Amino acid sequence: MMAKPVRGFQINTILDRLALDMLGILQGCLATAPLDRDRLHLAILLTLSRRAYVDGLLYRDYRIDRDSQWYSWSLPDGSIARIHEQGIVYLHKVLARRPKLARRLRHEPGNMQLLLGLLCRYGPAEHGWRAAEIRRDATLRACGEDPDFVEHVALELAAQRARLGDAYSEDSKRRREEYGPLWLIRGACCAEVPEEMALFEVVEAAPLPLEPAFAADHALQLMLVRVLDSLNERYMLLRACGLDPEVWHDRDEPSIARLREMKQLRKPAEELMRLGIEDDNIDAYRRAFNQLKGREKQFAGAASFDDFATTEHGMAVLRYASLSLDDPVATDSEGEEWTRHETIADPNALDVEDVVTRRRAAGQWARMLIDDRPDWFDPLMTYFFSEVIGNERPIHGAPGDPGVLRDAEFQHLIESYPELTVLDEGELAEQLCQRAEAIIKRGLRRHASPDG
Predict the structure, then answer these.
(1) Quick one: how far is CA 211 from the chain centroid?
(2) Pick from 230, 367, 388, 396: most CB atoms within 10 A?
(3) pLDDT of 440
(4) Closest C-alpha among 200, 169, 171, 202 to residue 184
(5) Separation in Å, CA 305 to CA 173, 233, 299
(6) Under 8 Å CB-to-CB from 134, ≥6 apart: which residues?
(7) How far is residue 104's CA from residue 59's CA, in Å, rounded to a whole number?
């Protein structure tokens, strides 16, 4: 179920869409008591596994086949649903994260606490939740004996404070010392609120059941967008840089500031490749790095491109750049652009005559390039290029073909390349595809040149 946006709530970004979908999920889960956590998490996972989020929000690992990134999930009704693995990562790394207090805040509560306050106002009206508020106050003490307040809300907040202990930021500690603790206040009842909260902790502390109308509250909608935007920032930057959030999200480095600079490298590097100014992604990233760095001492935390390229995150960025095949190469009958990996992965999209024609043309072009520029090829790449590009044989195997990497002739040739024999099959395929990609781009640039 998706909540209906009220007037003034704009759906401009994928996070706006996620906020609206999340409100619909919360509306279905918080209008009854007690909270069914499993139902909540499953609804979020199913939502994140929709194509809009898989394409527009979640990280894509080009080393992994698309189908292998999905899990079969048994639903309570006995049916099976497909859950995207990055949806699971997003749930646990992003949505379950407990953000630190923003440094600019002084006595004001953070967005998580403000969201809790907005939700609380839709608690059972007969208990006075309409007037609930959250604020810092050095003079208050926990009070109130109302069973509905104590038995769920106050006890849940106490449990959350106990779990948090003193493991919150120095900024929060300074604000607490200066302005007092954060309090949830409802009439004569008040309970201390944790200095830092996760989104699911906010949900679990809400006074259920909530009136379903909360999902149409403009202020609440906008607050949820701000919360999601803050939670999503690191994941979004990692995704833009090609760094797997499952590996990098919980690390301190690269910092948000460095990730923002690293993100700037991708577009100019890809443009240099597209225009044929550079035919190797390393050279394209080097030129983009030097242009962005200019006369500054550092860019992305490094004094030179070589320093950047030898860091663990720099190597991962460049590795991802060599795998990413997202440049559009064709447009279908509905005007939708297809990417190279999509056209290669689905040969059945063409009819038989087109397949034969394409394979004949590819084979002729590959053979012509090998004959015309033998200096671009060593024996291994001659074989690999002829078979994979020219004959369109599968790399890893397919029905009736064990694949090029397991072909006897390839196995014999690879023995002369000790630096490649130590790689596993996936890494080997990646290296060879990267070399073939560079050759193709050189060949296309040469073909397009007026000098031939």
Answers:
(1) 33
(2) 388
(3) 73
(4) 202
(5) 39, 25, 9
(6) 109, 113, 114, 116, 117, 120, 182, 183, 184, 185, 193
(7) 30
Identify which of 200, 240, 217 has the alpha carbon closest to the alpha carbon of residue 99: 200
Contacting residues for 273 by C-beta, under 8 A, at least 6 apart: 279, 281, 284, 441
Global pTM value: 0.71
3-class secondary-structure state, position 174? helix
Show the low-confidence residues of the chain (pLDDT under 70): 1-9, 324-365, 399, 441-452
**Amino acid at position 407, single letter:** D
State the residue for tokens 């004949």.
Answer: 360
Question: Where do the domains of the chain lie?
Answer: 14-95, 111-233, 252-323, 343-448
| Residue 266: how many other CB atoms lie within 10 Å | 19
Strand duo 80-84 + 182-186: pairing = unpaired
Q: Minimal CA–CA distance to 181: which of 129, 227, 141, 131?
A: 141
Amino acid at 333: S
For the beta sheet containing 133-136, the strands, ordered from the edge strand earlier in sequence to the opposite edge, are: 133-136, 182-186, 189-193
Q: d(Cα 292, Cα 302) in Å, to the nearest integer?
A: 12
CA 283 – CA 309 distance, rounded (Å): 11
**Whether the Cβ atoms of residue 362 and residue 389 lie closer than 8 Å to each other:** yes
Is 201 within 8 Å of 24 (Cβ atoms)? Answer: no
Q: What are the beta bridge partners of residue 81?
A: 73
Q: Give the C-alpha distances (Å, rounded to integers) separating 152 from 120, 159, 404, 416.
A: 12, 10, 62, 70
The whole-angstrom separation of Cα 409 and Cα 125 is 77
**Main-chain dihedrals φ then ψ at residue 182, nearest 5 degrees:** -90, 140
**Amino acid residing at 195:** E
Distance separating alpha carbons of residues 313 and 421, to the nearest angstrom? 25
User: From CA 197, how far away is CA 38, in angstroms rounded?
Assistant: 20
- Under a CB-based contact definition with an 8 Å cutoff, are residues 407 and 415 in contact? no
Angle, in degrees to the nearest 10, between helices 218-241 and 14-30? 130
Tokens representing 373 are: 């520029």
**How far is 138 from 441, CA to CA, in rounded Å?**
66
